[in-house]
Amino acid sequence: MAEKMSIAAAVMEGFAARDVDRLVALCAPDAEFRTRVDVTGEPEFSGPEGVRAWLDAVDDKYDLYEVTDCDYQAGAGDAVAVSCTLRLRFAGDRYGMARTAHWVFRVDDESALVTAFTSYRDRQDALTAAGISGGA
Q: Which domains, from first to last, does the chain contain?
């Protein structure tokens, strides 16, 4: 269980540092991503090139896009639920915004790599998807 939690934390740290090579190294070559922040024209992407394209698009469209105050919960099987504060500001805007974001990571036990990443609007939806019942 500790392994999947540390992998999810490493992904979030890699994202915060914009360390693309680290992010790619933490993800399976065929990893699938579904995000609510559609910056590439598609909310779904996969593999290392998808990760690179998504991060490039985030950096092009936003002056600020950071995650802080992450909370990790081990879910059923390969799942890890992550909730955090997402702070963002569109490029050229004077004002930004902050909101709570929720994700579920799927981490393969054998390879210790992320196989899927899905974002959710609501915490309860993410907890349910991670197989965590009665979460607050």
A: 2-129 (3.10.450.50)
Q: By the 8 A CB rule, do 26 and 9 touch?
A: no
Pull the structure tokens for residue 99: 């909101």
pLDDT of 16-58, one tens digit each?
888 999 999 999 999 999 988 767 777 788 898 888 888 888 8
Q: Name the token pair of 61.
A: 């469209």
Lateral strand order in the sheet of 44-46: 44-46, 27-34, 114-120, 97-107, 79-90, 62-74
Gap between the Cα atoms of 23 and 26, Å rounded: 5
Q: Tell me the pairing of strands 62-74 and 97-107.
A: unpaired
Percent of the chain with pLDDT over 90: 71
| pTM, 2 dp | 0.89
Q: In terms of Cα–Cα distance, which of 69, 73, 133 is closest to 101?
A: 69
